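Duplicate of earlier report; PGG domain-containing protein input re-posted below.
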Amino acid sequence: MTKKELGISRRDRIKMQRDLSDKASRRSEAYRAASGGRSLEILCEFWREEGVAPMDNRGDTILHFLAIHGNLAGFEILDPDLSIKDLETRNSNGDTPLHEAAKFGKKEVVEMILKKEKDLVFVRNNLGETPLYVAAASGEKDVFTLLANCDFSEETMKRNDGKTVLHATVAHDCYDLAIYIVNQYPELVNQRDNEKMSALNVLATKKLSFKSGSDYLFEEIGKTPSVPVQMIETIIYSCIPPLYTQASTKIFSRERSLFTDFLLGNFWLQVIDEAKQNHILALILAKMLLENYDWSYNTDYIVPNPLIQASNLKINELVVEILEIYPEVVETLDEKQRNILHIAVEHKNRFLFDYLVQKVAHIERMLADIDEDGNTILHYAAHVGSPFRTSTSEHFEEVWCVLSVFMMMWGILWFKHVKLHVHPRLWDVKNSKGVTAEELFEKNHLEIRKEAEDAIRNLANSALILATLLCTVNFAAIFTIPGGFDQKTGLPIFLQNLKHELWMLIFYLGAALISSVVTIGTLLSFILCKFHSDDFYISLPTRVVIAMVSVFYATTFSVLACVQTLNLDNIFLNKDVWWLIIVMVVVGFIMTLIYIDLAFPIFDYLYYFVSYSFISNKRGVM
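Output:
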């Protein structure tokens, strides 16, 4: 190759690199212009050079970006050169610019595209979604109404898997639009997709859309890691005024005061407010779907049953609404021949179990039902779990330390609670494997019981050191009272001038000492315990409460004795230690919150133990 040829090749390469650089720069400028940040003339120049060439690896063209950003001016300046074929250009997902405009609620762009070509409403993407379906899935009510007025038919409101626009709104939590669709097109309520799921079936899988699936229930305090925070959030939730009310088939939105809007503008409160309004809309939608629902029975279980779905996911509001409107469906059985009482017992759903026992007319029949494997309701009560967890073996790897103790406590309490409602003749019934309910309980809880035993012994040994230390310190402090003793009389010197303050100090030290001794005795009883399953019913919980209360008082009185000692020495009169009071208040407040967080589960257990113990109309004896 000659030098001349080499030079030409190099120049060609340089020119090609420059052209590529200019092209990339032009594409970047056009992208910025599409978002409304640059001159529209750049768009015209790019359009003349590139047209509908893809701008990214998603296959998006400049028209897609104009639609996404709602850049109506950009469309208008390109309008003379736009063809129907340009507007039909799809990206890698099969979406046209109309799909993108509908997805992001750009109503003006949608109107402009429809004026150009109305038949674009029939174009489907790779999933078979029309722009109408995309607008519904995104909750864009204005765009949905516009497209529905243009055409609402089987061709536009369904996608390839048979899901309708109503399915889409429910699946994406767009309940406001879903309510509008039910009002306008009630025939969609009983439309089923290829998996035989109706909109109500989809709603029955949306646990977090209902209050019972949230953390804002007083009955569910203890569900989150921080009990004090959950208490505050639950109180706030109950105090927030609802935005939506239902009257017949219409939904009314209430106006809020400026002060309320200002308060709820805080991010933390805004999250709680949005959750509550979403729960309200979901429940309203559930009622409307049920009013139009065709409750057909299918013995081959191909069609999913909303009642069974809601029971499995502990969506109690939906279960109650179903039974209020269709009380006869309480007799429904799932594919394992279980009724919803079996499901409630398996998941330790306290609310649903008590509701069914109180409200169902033929509860004796439900309590006596046996599934296809010969399991009675007591066999389901033998499953591992707590009211805050779903159940069984998938939790074994997670169970450790204190959690295993609470799961054993709740397990035995729940088993006995259910047993009291079951006829005694069913207590010793064996399933198809020849196992009674009590035998199954012991088998299922064997590993948990061992974990709980190890956890209690380890905690008792650790706490015993603290209790012994508190006992020793307070015992020694009684004989080292501030001010010393009178050498002649042997009485404390402060007894003459500060008699009241001194007696308060002695009271605090004595109370701390007695509490420490009680704690030591209780902790020693843990070490000597045999840890049978029945011990977790009342014996161990009672001792845990005694230990927690006594160690709390021992610590509190020790701190008070320390404060009283400083008071006797006039430390608080020194202006240089003002910060000490603030530190003590802050530390005391923090320690109280920690104690509430730690102690709440056991007191919650005792509350339910007492309430279950005094429920009327029981069978058998605890």
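Residues 179 and 410 are 40 Å apart (CA to CA).

Merging into the original ticket.
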